[in-house]
Write a structure and sequence with these properties.
Blueprint: H1 2-7, H2 21-48, H3 60-86, H4 95-99, H5 103-116, H6 120-146
């Protein structure tokens, strides 16, 4: 229970946000849990529909799909490492670990996993979620301008 209390959000001024262990732990748990849960739900849903898991793409299509997954994985690593390097001398560089838990960044990672493991629905679902989030951002912006 102590760990859960430590992980809970307490606001931006909480002492745990001044160190690097909370952002690192949050980052690792977030990506681990999201990946495990979405892959499990994806596989469970397909099994409930009597759809075999692997035959989505075969032959050349599967090879291209895996290449896209590798590209997205490398892209994720490069932009994350570049962001860390650019903030390395900043005492708050660890904030980048929090920023990588935003939906847009998670979508790139999950897209890489989805395409590489022949689960294109997983990649598509995150893309749809990001698309809806972007549309809502414009609705919020319009509301701000009008009000």
């Amino acid at each position: 229970m102590e760990v859960i209390r430590w992980l809970r959000e307490e606001g931006p001024k909480a002492s745990k946000h001044r160190g690097k262990w909370h952002p690192l732990t949050t980052f690792v748990l977030h990506y681990g849990i999201v990946t495990a849960v979405t892959m499990s739900v994806h596989d469970w849903w397909l099994s409930m529909q009597d759809i075999p898991l692997l035959p989505f793409c075969t032959g050349d299509d599967a090879g291209r799909q895996q290449s896209v997954g590798i590209f997205l994985g490398i892209y994720f690593l490069v932009f994350f490492i570049c962001r860390l390097i650019l903030r390395w001398k900043d005492p708050d560089y660890y904030i980048e670990f929090y920023k990588q838990t935003f939906l847009c960044s998670v979508t790139i990672f999950q897209g890489a996993i989805g395409f590489y493991t022949n689960r294109p629905i997983l990649a598509q679902s995150f893309c749809v979620a990001v698309g809806i989030d972007q549309i809502l951002w414009y609705v919020d912006l319009l509301g701000y301008i009008l009000l």
